[in-house]
Prior knowledge:
33% of the residues lie in helices and 27% in strands. By secondary structure, it is an alpha/beta fold.
Amino acid sequence: MSSFIINGGKHLVGEKTVTGAKNGILPLLAATYLCDGKVTIHNCPELTDVSTSIGILKHLGCKCSREKSVLTVDSLGSDGFIIPERLMREMRSSIVFLGAVAAKCGKAVMSLPGGCELGPRPIDIHIDALKRLGADIEFTNGQIICNMPEPTGDCDIHLNFPSVGATENIILAASKGKGTTVVHNAAREPEIKDLAGMLNSAGADIKGAGTSTVLIKGVNKLHGTEHTVMPDRIVAASYLFAVAMCKGKITLNNIIPEHIVPFTSCLYDCGCEVKLGESSVFLKSGGTLKNFDSITTQPFPGFPTDAGPALVAAASVFKGTGVFVENIFDSRFRYIGELSRLGANIRTVGRTAVITGVKRLHGAQVTAHDLRGGAALVSASMAADGQTEINNIEFIDRGYEHIEDMFSSLGADIKRC
Ligand code: UD1
């Protein structure tokens, strides 16, 4: 187990380019399995979740190679349909392989995915949707056994909740085959649009991705293609909230303004100077920032659940009291206990956190319990007086490409040991 040693209190100043989105690349990698040919993916971030997905693809028989941020996957001739437990357990999003593998092979066998650090994460919406597409699914000894000889003909699927993963699974499962599938109350997250864009460039026929109604006409064959992964809006949020709480200024390149407006408008209201360009954002933070009144996480275009920890960490040093409600996951507040060790004043009741800003945080020994909570501890430690040791940083490596380099280059004192 590695840790970070952070000497806080440094201002963060500089210019950075945002990497490719973790939440975007993982479904894209599942999609490469459907393509009979070489898929070249640009702007692929170097993350342990990406390595796990590549491990799954190799296990299924694909040829994968990587040259810096360019990843090539060739799935032609691959026909594996079993994914071992050790790979499934590594991350929750491994469940998107279910739709892709079943659509390609007519069957899929895999264990239930991991990722329970945010509380129970059921997959009933995924399973019900795949059944509507003609899959026969059983659960035996912790394994999902799925048979889907051919997706059914025309089919309407209404989601009770706009689940991101389930929408991705339906798109993957219905892209190849017969009939037209219409998804109602689909997730509208930008990562869905990115997935559909890549599949369409490989010959799929998907319309409406990014809206609540997605129409997928199955095609016989998908071919090789090239695609650039969309920028990571959650990494952008991590930079912006960190610079806001540590004081300083940053220009972020490779952002899509509409993706980051939930953060920039909040930071503007708190007193930061914010300027949005066509594909960049400038943020300057100085003086006293005041807390937001109330923020609730919501499906896109609302405030994203993944940016909640970065916001709460920043709010812990903003003047006054802010109320934050986590509306997507049941149990996402473990990092708050760790923030309290750094001197934050936060009370939680159920899914609500009431944050009363303190003048200064102080260094302490803390532990990351999940990916985004772990990253929030990094920003809080950079803002704190004195030295902090963060343990279990492997969680952070799942979603941030060398976070220590990311912040060191802005002036932070952070070392991996
Ligand atoms: C969620 C986030 C997504 C983020 C991803 C990675 C939302 C809406 N989704 O996607 O933006 O990129 O984490 O961190 O913010 N649920 C069920 N049954 C299911 C599927 C989901 O009850 O079959 C529930 C979940 O328990 C949760 C909610 O629906 O309460 C959100 O689920 P979903 O969007 O599917 O989660 P992810 O795909 O993991």
